[in-house]
UniProtKB/TrEMBL annotation:
This is GED domain-containing protein. GO terms for molecular function: GTP binding; GTPase activity; microtubule binding. Keywords: GTP-binding, Nucleotide-binding. Residues 736-829 form the GED domain. Residues 45-353 form the Dynamin-type G domain. Residues 10-23, 490-499, 662-678 have a biased composition (Polar residues). Residues 1-23, 480-512, 662-702 are annotated as: Disordered. It comes from Candolleomyces aberdarensis.
């Protein structure tokens, strides 16, 4: 080995590697900055400039490192090649010193640590002769991670061959400083191996070492110092293949040929094309160095003597001494170190602004991730849980009262309310004021007086009595949206139109579910219901049976509406629970609150269901005190049905009356004017004025005008054309028409009442009911207000280990990034 002690005095004159004067002060400060950045461990997070020394085993890497650093590395049992050895060289005005530390990237199980851990391994070394032994012990400590570090630092080294690991990602870090030390940093990586011996090692060692080397050289800011021994064919050395894989253009690779004195006779010229950069060209060229031989090491020659012998070798040994002058700068260790230092310095100068940007982006990203994590556990979990419960209850109350926006609870319920109201409205009986035998092809137009009465649309007689059909459609839509299933009794099949057409005239269809109800069928039912009534009188039970038939159809739509509202409430309360509790603890509080709210909602549903059934039970007995609306609707429906029937049974008379009324002159003359028995001429229909030059004959009055005139002559005045219906013979179906008007008027009043009462009951018991006493219910069932509240709240606030580990890793990473930012701020580019 090189005699470090004897060479110590000579170093003060010759220096180690690059002379200090060759580096400008700003460049030196940048090199120092990168070393400090490495001390923060930020190289785990960003790409820092670094030199990685790679090569196959026995490629001469150790000798090269010794010639650059001026220290002696351990060689026994190949220990130095089994873990990375980082050398950080820096010039200092203080006396020469070396600090040995262990850098742990992974734990004893090989898992990555959240933050790089640096541990000093022994006191500072001031005597170079002590470095070799300290490094050997440090490497053994790295390869035995489960054993105490102190055991390797102070204990004996009898079992140096026995290690827990054959290779490790953790490294030994050497911080060497002194007056004549080169400003350079590099990392000596384990040599690539081609096979594992049967006496030692593990089957995965080859992949482990290659993966370790790859983790360094794949970074864009890593300068690859590729060592290739000249005693083995170039093609057989895998380090070049790996370097070319990650630096295919050779921009950041510096090649070094070692052991030129061991080139087989006659093969020296095979290596000269590398020096001339003709073979496997690199941007920074290939170099060749000559390190001390085995005999030189045994003689303990000094570092300066080793450099002198290297100079003599290249000066006197062909074919090296025959190279053109321009290629001589690629020979010798000193030239290599100068080039390494220059390349590293240039890379640092280029990368520093980029590093600052990367740090800024990384800090922002880490803070964003930290912000997205659940809140850290509180030091006062009781108050925090209480605040969360209170805020949830207040937010639930606000949503139940109504919030703007299309996704609010009330906004989601409103379409179901409209659908329910339409469904109930469409159960109205479809009375037809015609006999069934004369009904073919006849269409009853919808009553126009209901157009403004029903704000949810015009009532169409074609959908009257379709409650179950509409309910089924309503249920199918809701099921498709994930709502509660519809009761089986609401799944009945609607009779098809073709089936309805096949019914014979003799079939009596009185159920409003299946179609029209004709006036003769109403009359037949009324006649059958008579008991002791006087002739022409019919019992109220006729109207009642029709009304009950309608009310029976209201149950399924009401329950479907209730179930739909429950579905909406389940979805909204679940969303609110997640909003308030998802980021608290491990999710235990959210889970429990969701279960409590769900059960509370089920109880509210039961109460609402009882209310709906109670409302339905009341509707089974016809009742109203809204006499005004009932009377108004009856008169309108009575006129509506009579008018339609009169057009059918008394079509000619009706058409004459309507034609007479539609004449514009009628309203201004005839019977509408004041008349007296002494002035019968006023009853005559006025004659339009003749056109100029074309006199007309007086127009003969028609039948309606004659009747009105005759009544006027008899002294009966104030008669309108429409009043003539009263002098017509009575309609035998008039009692049935009156029953139809009664039933239809009541259904109109009852449907409005029922379509209000059910949503109101559901709103009171289910929608508003869910927030009623919710805070008290939560506190009681969670136990947060009892004697065990502190223990319960502490359990609820406990954070997930995964989240805790992630937060800790992010906090450590943020600390590293911020420390690196502080270091960068101290240098002026």
């Amino acid at each position: 080995m090189v005699n470090a002690t004897e060479g110590a005095k000579e170093q003060t004159q010759s220096g180690i590697g690059l002379s200090d004067a060759q580096l400008s002060q700003p460049r030196r400060r940048m090199l120092d900055l990168v070393n400090r950045l490495h001390s923060t461990g930020v190289q785990v997070d960003i790409d820092l400039p670094q030199i990685a020394v790679i090569g196959s085993q026995s490629a001469g890497k150790s000798s090269l490192i010794e010639s650059i650093s001026g220290i002696t590395l351990p060689r026994a049992a190949g220990t130095c090649t089994r873990c990375p050895t980082e050398c950080r060289l820096s010039r200092s005005d203080s006396p020469w010193q070396c600090k040995v530390s262990l850098r742990f990237i992974t734990d004893k199980n090989g898992q990555l640590l959240g933050q790089v851990r640096n541990e000093a391994f022994g006191p500072v070394i001031y005597n170079k002769a002590e470095v070799e032994e300290r490094i050997k012990r440090a490497q053994r400590a790295i390869l035995n991670p489960s054993r105490p570090r102190k055991q390797f630092l102070d204990g004996d080294d009898n079992n140096s061959r026995l290690t827990e690991l054959s290779f490790s990602n953790n490294c030994v870090s050497l911080q060497i400083s002194g007056p004549d030390v080169a400003d350079l940093s590099f990392c000596d990586l384990p040599g690539l191996i081609a096979s594992v011996s049967s006496s030692g090692g593990h089957a995965n060692d080859i992949a482990l070492v290659e993966g370790l080397v790859t983790s360094y050289i794949k970074k864009p800011s890593c300068i690859i110092l590729l060592t290739v021994t000249c005693e083995t064919d170039f093609e057989n050395q895998g380090a070049h293949r790996l370097a070319k894989q990650y630096d295919p253009e050779g921009r950041r690779t510096i090649g070094v040929l070692t052991k030129p004195d061991r080139i087989p006779e006659g093969e020296q010229n095979h290596w000269l094309p590398f020096i001339r950069n003709e073979r496997e060209p690199l941007d920074n060229n290939w170099y060749c160095v000559k390190q001390p031989s085995s005999s030189d090491i045994k003689q303990n020659i000094t570092w300066d003597e080793a450099r002198k012998r290297e100079d003599d070798y290249f000066s006197m040994t062909p074919p090296w001494n025959e190279l053109d002058t321009i290629y001589l700068k690629y020979l010798r260790t000193r030239n290599l170190v100068e080039r390494l230092s220059s390349v590293l310095s240039d890379l640092i100068a280029k990368r520093l602004p980029e590093i600052q940007e990367e740090l800024d982006r990384s800090i922002i990203k880490v803070r964003e991730i930290l912000g997205s994590l659940p809140r850290p556990p509180s030091t006062d979990p009781v108050n925090e849980v209480a605040n969360l419960l209170y805020e949830f209850a207040a937010d639930l109350h606000r949503h139940v009262d109504g919030v703007p926006g299309e996704n609010g609870i009330l906004q989601c319920i409103r379409p179901a309310q409209d659908k329910f109201r339409r469904t109930i409205r469409d159960t109205a009986p479809q009375f037809m004021p015609f006999e069934r035998r004369r009904a073919d092809g006849k269409v009853l137009q919808p009553p126009t007086f209901l157009e403004g009465d029903d704000d949810i649309g015009v009532v169409n007689n074609q959908v009257y009595g379709r409650a179950l059909v509409v309910a089924r459609k309503m249920a199918n839509t809701d099921e498709a949206e994930g709502s509660v299933p519809v009761p089986a009794q609401a799944q009945e099949t609607e009779p098809s139109s073709s089936t309805a057409k096949k019914r014979t005239h003799e079939e009596t269809v009185e159920d409003s579910n299946t179609g029209n109800i004709y006036v003769d069928e109403v009359f037949a039912r009324a006649h059958k219901a008579r008991t002791r009534e006087l002739p022409g009188s019919y019992p109220f039970t006729v109207q009642k049976t029709f009304i009950i038939d309608v009310v029976k159809q209201w149950k399924d739509p009401a329950l479907i509406y209730l179930q739909n509202v429950q579905t909406f409430m389940l979805a909204h309360t679940k969303e609110l629970v997640s909003k308030h509790f998802s980021e608290f603890g491990q999710g235990l509080l959210e889970q429990r609150v969701r279960a409590i709210v769900h059960n509370h909602l089920k109880e509210c549903f039961k109460r609402a269901e009882q209310r709906v059934l109670w409302v339905l039970e009341m509707e089974e007995h016809p009742f109203t005190v809204n006499y005004h609306y009932l009377s108004e609707y009856k008169s309108k429906f009575l006129a509506y049905y009579k008018s339609a029937r009169d057009k059918e049974t008394r079509g000619e008379v009706t058409s004459q009356i309507e034609s007479f009324v539609s004449q514009p002159t009628v309203s201004a003359a005839g019977p509408q004017q004041p008349t007296t028995p002494g002035n019968p001429k006023l009853a005559k229909k006025p004659r339009p004025a003749a056109s100029f030059g074309s006199p007309e004959e007086p127009e003969e009055p028609n039948g309606i005008a004659k009747v009105l005139a005759g009544l006027t002559e008899m002294g009966i005045v104030g008669i309108k054309p429409q009043d003539l219906y009263r002098i017509l013979p009575p309609d035998e179906m008039e009692p049935a028409i009156n029953i139809m008007a009664d039933v239809r008027a009541y259904c109109q009043v009852a449907y409005k009442r029922f379509s209000d009462n059910v949503p109101q009951a559901v709103d009171h018991e289910l929608v508003r009911g869910v927030e009623r006493d919710i805070l008290k219910t939560l506190c009681m069932k969670l136990g947060t207000s009892g004697p065990l509240s502190e223990r319960i709240c502490a359990e609820l606030a406990q954070e997930s280990p995964q989240v805790a580990d992630k937060r800790l890793d992010l906090m450590k990473k943020l600390e590293r990034l911020q420390s690196a930012t502080v270091e960068l701020m101290e240098i002026e580019l």
